[in-house]
Amino acid sequence: MNKENATEEGVFDLVIFGGDGDLAFRKIFPALYYRLEDGQIKNTSRFLAVSLKERTTEEFRKILLSEINSHIKEAKQPIVDQLLNMTEYAFGIAKTTSYSDSYNLWFTNSTNEVRVFYLATPATVFGEICKNLNEQGNITKTSRVVLEKPLGTDLKSSEEVNNQVAQYFSEEQIYRIDHYLGKETVQNLMVLRFANNIFERSWNAQEIDNVQITVSESLGVGKRGDFYDKYGALRDMVQNHLLQLLCLISMEPPVTLEADQVRDEKLKVLRALRPFDKKSIKKDTVRGQYTRGSSKEGQLPSYLEEIDKYESNTETFVALKTYIENWRWGGVPFYLRTGKRMPHRYSEIVINFKQVPHNIFPEKKNIENNRLTIRLQPEERIELRQMVKIPGPGGYRYKPFSLELDYADHFENRFPDAYERLLMDVARGNQTLFMRRDEVKASWEWTESILKHWKNQKMPNHLYEAGTWGPGDFIMDEGNSWVKSQHVAKIQEKKNEN
Length: 498
Ligand code: BG6
Fold this sequence. Notes:
Helix content is 37%, strand content 21%. The model is unreliable at 1-6 (pLDDT under 50). Helix 1 (22-37) crosses helix 2, helix 6 runs antiparallel to helix 15 (437-456) and helix 9 packs across helix 10. The strands form three sheets. A nine-stranded mixed beta sheet has the order 17-16-15-14-8-13-12-9-18. It has a seven-stranded mixed beta sheet with strand order 4-3-2-1-5-6-7. The protein has two domains: 3-148, NAD(P)-binding Rossmann-like Domain (Rossmann fold, 3-Layer(aba) Sandwich); 181-418 and 432-497, Dihydrodipicolinate Reductase, domain 2. With 498 residues, the protein is an alpha/beta fold. Bound molecules: 6-O-phosphono-beta-D-glucopyranose. 6-O-phosphono-beta-D-glucopyranose binds next to loops. 6-O-phosphono-beta-D-glucopyranose binds at residues 217, 236.
């Protein structure tokens, strides 16, 4: 944090545009509740929800109360009351520059130094909101603006949004959220890699055969059909969340945790990603869309049924193989896949180490490679597979076993949601977990190589039944397959038994 921005910890003004939206109720307000409960936010902080509906603060507080109770199990009444008292409501439409009196009054009464504008609205209105903030004199030197993804639908539109916002806020004031970076287990990737000498020594093309990143979701698009149909899985998940995971798993050690040091290293990875061409696009990427299927709970609708359309070319599944063209990773395939309506919700990174160079054992049975599986959600676990001798006579018989570290066995407390950390980081002025403009640009540049060739080659969607793993095998090299942690395998076994 620079000195200019130094301020009392935990005291800030927060203005949420889109203050009655899904994100505000599901993530932002619950995050404020928990940080209040932990005493990290002082009660002199003030929150203003701004939205398109004309209603009073009292009316809004009633809605907020019921939303908090539906999103937080056993919310504590004194904390809920505190949150309600600190929150006011104002009506505002960016396009017509129409804001209620309560909006201006709220700013007139403001004495807190740090002012955060959270734009939980579509990116198409970011420019107008910022312009109005500027015209109304709301932007101070210690103001910060939080931008929610998706920032545009391609490189051009994302640059346009960034240009618009940059007219009113400097890069040091802009916080681009990718909520994956705020997840506890994603941050643990930094500790796993850079606080453990044994892993970092073998974290390279000499020792690692391939890396797999899976973010699988069991839900469909639900009520977000209109939005999703314009984006699809590549823009919604790969361009941001999966690429950020890829960066953290593959970047060079930053010199310190200072924001730009970390972001510089991530940027180098993004710039080293091999773009796709008309040959590799067909061989190394696959897109899919779910059709009707079933689960134990019953029938699952198709994507088209969910979005209520007869046809759509939007992908709900992507798998691809990419390479990072640098000294550390030259030649190592990175397999990425994500999809909706898959059998379970889970995110895992699998590091497949190389086989031993020579098998000295008389049995000559396959020696399975070491494998580190980092399970990011829903439970946090690490598994390290190794070969073990089966005790007893009969020579050297061996079998793979895993060392398993289950976070829940060691850390009993609730893990804070990503938004809790990210909001507090904005209030503190720490940009480490936010994307810098050049990172966003580099990730769009690479993503565009896919979008362009998908379009030119008219890449079809492979249909997959809802509740199945999708067409990811198409891009797997011979002898490789998508691997899951033992944990997923066990869940699946149980399901099959029932
Ligand atoms: C969002 C995507 O960014 O991330 C959603 O827009 C997706 O489509 C969500 O469902 C997944 O987040 P999480 O934290 O549930 O893995």
